[in-house]
Amino acid sequence: MARYSCLLVLDLPLAAALRAEPELQGNPVAIVEEGDERATILAGWMRGLTVAQARTIRPDLIVRPLSVEGVRSAREALLDVACSVTPRVEDAAPGLAFLDLEGTQALFPTERGLRTALEARLEETGLEGTRVGIGPTRTVSHLAASHRGGGHIVPAHSVREFLETLPVDLLDPPQEEAERLTRWGIHTLGELANLPLDALGSRLGEEGVRLARRARGEDLIPFRPTSAPLRFEEGTETGYPVGNLETLAFFLRGVLDRLTRRLRLRGLACRELHLEFVLESGKLFARPIRLAAPTLEVPVLVSLVRLALEQNPPGEPIERVRIVATPGGVDTAQLDLFLPPLPAPAELAVTVARLEALCGSGRVGAPGLEDTHRPEAGRLDPFNRENPETRAPVPQNGPALPPPALALRALRPPVPVRVYGTDGGPAHVEPLDGARARELAGGRVLHRAGPWRLYGEWWGESRFARDYFDVELADGGIYRMYRNLEDGGWFVDGTYD
After folding, report:
1. pLDDT at 112 over 80
2. Please, where in the chain does CATH 3.30.70.270 lie?
3. What CATH number should be reported for the domain whose range is 4-164?
4. For the chain, which end, N or C, has fewer CB atoms within 10 Å of the first or last residue's CB respectively?
5. What's the Rg (C-alpha) of the chain?
6. Cβ of 473: how many Cβ atoms within 10 Å?
7. What is the pLDDT of residues 411-449, one digit of tens each?
8. Type and span of the H or E element at 386
9. Comma-separated ranges of CATH 3.30.1490.100 domains in the chain
10. pTM reported for the whole predicted model
11. Element (H, E) at 382
């Protein structure tokens, strides 16, 4: 037999505000569109009154502006809780989700255990007070969640008994139909369900028939599962322009904390962050942040965001924050009995970010090879420890190669020099750049070998043609140098150790 569960948030704007500020739990909170005392309360305490009228009754009333970003994030968090139990989830309305429980018996053998798990996960994501109901139809589960704080589990054989005494107001009938039912003395779902459908339809029309069928626990439309995309984003309005990094970090910590809680529910971690800030002037500031390894550690993510903003600040105060997380699998490491544990993967991301703060953006990464014969060609790739090119080569079985007699230490950029010679080869070398004289003292050429001509990429602007020499100078060093055939310039390309 089919079983459904209902997750119901009665006041989604209020739940979003309490999710962003958990310390407000238990206090009278009102949600308004604007912070004026004459504004009408949209959600929370004393809905429909103005703030000034409500304060005459509750002077300790706390007023918060309506957060569109927060409401959307709270709605997505509710769906994350539902999808953590089953993939068959229907997003019926903002703050209302239905779960098809077919196939979940292996994970949750009892419905009481399922209800407890849902309540714990709702509390984990900050949606405290969300009501849970379980029943044989979506209508019954919705009524079970709506009645007296929710938490009801209605077996199939007890549906009629459960619905018998429930008030008609739980169906939220239109005002005209509600008034007519009251005049007829119909106050409970049992009394409404006992009315003949034909007679009820002739007096109240189609809406009356719909109310009677719902009073009997019937579903009016089929179950329509919603495919929830794996998109995790959280946002908030700061309430005032924030131009200080410390204050901004306070807002970001709360946003990242809620974001990682949602990822943890789905068994995922944060692999990449995308920051979106709405500035005081209305402009959009966006910044991607790559992580060396997926993580769920909020302090690490806050440190990475702070380092990124220190390198590239928005330039204006911020009024709205949104963070989008790209999910990834959680890394696991095999421990060793005889070796100390390796550093946490998240520490690598912070280390790389701090190095970028010292060296500059785009100057930290993993070396990569270009498809060319140019000796100094190379590129800097983003560091990714999952990239096979960044891993140390695995030694192959076979005879060991003899160690090289000399190693060439490349000088980047090459050192420009002045060369004297009569036969086309260098006879005396002097550095042109005095600041780099410590790399090359210069002097008379004692021995030389070459030239070896190297040229390529003649089809593009990066073409090159050079004559290379290996020389031993009077300063005691052995160098590799070349002459650029296009302009005749001489450069020292490296030194032999």
Report:
1. yes
2. 4-164
3. 3.30.70.270
4. N
5. 35
6. 22
7. 888 888 889 886 778 889 888 766 565 667 778 889 999
8. none
9. 232-328
10. 0.72
11. none
